[in-house]
Every structure is written in structure tokens, then in C-alpha cells.
Amino acid sequence: MEKMGAADSQLEDLFEQKKPVRNPLVPVGALLTAGVLTAGLISFRQGNSQLGQKLMRARVVVQGATVALMVGSAYYYGDRFMVSKK
Question: Helix or strand or coil: residue 1?
């Protein structure tokens, strides 16, 4: 039982030291992805398959950019967290 208490204490210390970091561009990217997806689905439903196809391709690009932002910010802030901990 003592070991569990020590582990919990260490975890609490870790989470207290780490400040929550948020990248405001990630939610913007997610909203853009959802907006382009919605517009594409509406285009397909209205019978404009050429525009719908272009919007689906744009969705893939926007979604890729959002994922790249998430990975980049996790790498950047994760690296800064490790440096500040030393």
C-alpha cells in the first residue's frame, strides 16, 4: 500500500508542475474541417458532385493541417516541458 501512495504523490506533483497548454489554432482547424465537410456533403446532396469532390479534397488538406498543428504543438510544448523539468 505504501508504494501506491508514493506513486500517487509523484503523479500529483507531475500534474501540478505541468501547466495546461493549448494551441488556439487546433480548435479553429477542427471547425474549418467540419465546415468544409458540411459544405461538401450539402453539395453532394444537391447534385453538384464536382464542387463536392473539390470540397472533400479541401477537407483532407485542412484536416492534415490540423493534425500537423496538433503534433507540432505537442512536440514543441512537450520538449519545453522536459527542459523546464531538468
Answer: coil
d(CA 74, CA 22): 9
What is the separation of C-alpha 82 from the centre of its chain, rounded to a whole number of angstroms? 20
| 44 close to 52: Cβ distance less than 8 angstroms | yes
Q: Which amino acid is at 82?
A: M
Per-residue b/e over 10-38, b at no fewer than 16 CB within 10 Å? eeeeeeeeeeeeeeeebeebeebbeebbe
Spatial separation of the C-alpha atoms in residues 71 and 68, rounded to whole Å: 5
Number of neighbours of residue 44 by Cβ within 10 angstroms: 15
Residue range 13-66, pLDDT digits in tens: 666 655 555 677 788 888 999 999 999 999 999 999 999 999 999 999 999 999
